[in-house]
């Protein structure tokens, strides 16, 4: 990407794990033509999948679709996932799992969020008027 060129796209997705294939196609289509390492695309898809499936799993009764927004700015990708009429959930507040313990001594949960935080260059969260929005950035160069 050159200079201060920016582009963006957004789309709502049905709150279902079945939406993941459409989400991945949307991300790949948005990034088409951008020279980026395959690992960067994998990281973005992993983090979106983790955030999306958590919102599907823990707010199963919420009928609202989830909004995915993508923005390219000056060599980085900003990805936002917004949940409407939702309870707050700040992924930054999830304690890191004890990955230093033997597997049989670990408590389940939290590993996906932990890995997600490690794969991105920044993560922000805001909650206003029952709108829960998580935004992460990933350097594309």
- Overall average pLDDT: 88
Proportion of residues in helical segments: 25-40%
Strand order, sheet with most strands: 1-2-3-5-4
Structural class: alpha+beta
The tally of beta strands, per DSSP, is 5
Strand content: 25-35%
User: Which second-level CATH architecture applies?
Assistant: 2-Layer Sandwich
The CATH topology turns out to be Heat Shock Protein 90
Gap from first CA to last CA = 9 Å
Main sheet characteristics: 5 strands, antiparallel
**At the first level of CATH, what is the class?**
Alpha Beta
Q: How many distinct folded domains?
A: 1
What is the CATH superfamily label? Histidine kinase-like ATPase, C-terminal domain
Count of individual helical segments: 3
Radius of gyration, rounded?
A: 16 Å
Q: Which oligomeric form is depicted?
A: single chain
H/E element string?
EHHEEHEE
Which consecutive residue ranges, at least 5 long each, have pLDDT under 50?
none
What global shape is seen? globular
Report on the structure:
The chain has helices at 20-31, 38-58, 111-119; strands spanning 6-13, 66-73, 76-84, 122-128, 131-139. It is of the alpha+beta class.
């Amino acid at each position: 990407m050159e200079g201060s060129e920016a582009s963006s796209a957004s789309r709502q997705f049905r709150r279902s794990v079945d939406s993941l294939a459409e989400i991945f196609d949307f991300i790949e289509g948005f990034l088409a033509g951008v020279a980026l390492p395959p690992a960067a695309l994998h990281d973005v898809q992993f983090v979106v999948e983790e955030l999306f499936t958590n919102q599907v799993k823990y707010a199963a009764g919420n009928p609202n679709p989830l909004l995915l927004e993508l923005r390219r700015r000056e060599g980085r990708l900003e990805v936002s996932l917004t949940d409407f009429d939702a309870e707050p959930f700040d992924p930054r507040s999830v304690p890191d799992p004890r990955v230093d313990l033997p597997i049989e001594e670990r408590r389940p949960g939290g590993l996906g969020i932990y890995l997600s935080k490690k794969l991105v260059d920044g993560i922000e969260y805001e909650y206003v008027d029952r709108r829960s929005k998580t935004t992460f950035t990933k350097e594309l160069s």
